[in-house]
Amino acid sequence: NPHLNVWIVWAVTVCGNAASATVVYFVARRVGKGFLASRVGRRLMSPELVAKVQVEFEQHHTWGIFVSRCLPIYRAVVPALSGIMHIPARRAIPAIAAASAMFYGLVVWLAYTLGQNWEAVKGMVERLGLGLLTASALVTIGIIWLVIKRRRARG
Predict the structure, then answer these.
(1) CA torsion 100→102→106→107, rounded to 10°?
(2) d(CA 115, CA 72)
């Protein structure tokens, strides 16, 4: 959208993400240990795994939080684990926010760049889609051929 300022989009995204991650951090800090001690909590994270995570957080603190928040999949659990492990807020929250700023900076930049070059992207996706359709059709034909061949060989 040419009417959106990319910096505003980035700032709103980072603020929203950092704020929600901060809420998760504080909720997990308050109730996380009790939850992990419950039956359901022990099924999600065994006491052995909790101990290993604790050691990793103690060794890597801020950098571990920052790097983990930059990795898809892991980034979702880092605020909760930081709170559960009682990493001090003065260390955890700035690392969470800085990683969010970098991660969403990349996401917003990629989206903006793709939007600016939409016709080229659209053409590439159309060609890729046609190639995938062709490959899928060939694989399907091959599977059907193998099934028919095996059935004929059996009887």
Answers:
(1) 10
(2) 22
Q: Check: CB of residue 53 under 8 Å from CB of residue 81.
A: yes
Joined tokens for residue 145: 């051929």
Give Rg (Cα) of the chain.
24
SS (H, E, C) the chain: CCCCCHHHHHHHHHHHHHHHHHHHHHHHHHHHHHHHHCHHHHHHCCHHHHHHHHHHHHHHHHHHHHHHHCCCCHHHCHHHHHHHCCCCHHHHHHHHHHHHHHHHHHHHHHHHHHHHCHHHHHHHHHHHHHHHHHHHHHHHHHHHHHHHHHHHHHC
Q: What is the pLDDT along the chain (155 residues), one digit of tens a residue?
A: 567 888 999 999 999 999 999 999 999 999 988 888 888 888 888 888 888 888 888 788 788 889 888 888 888 889 998 999 888 999 999 999 999 999 999 999 988 888 888 888 788 888 888 888 899 999 999 999 999 998 898 87
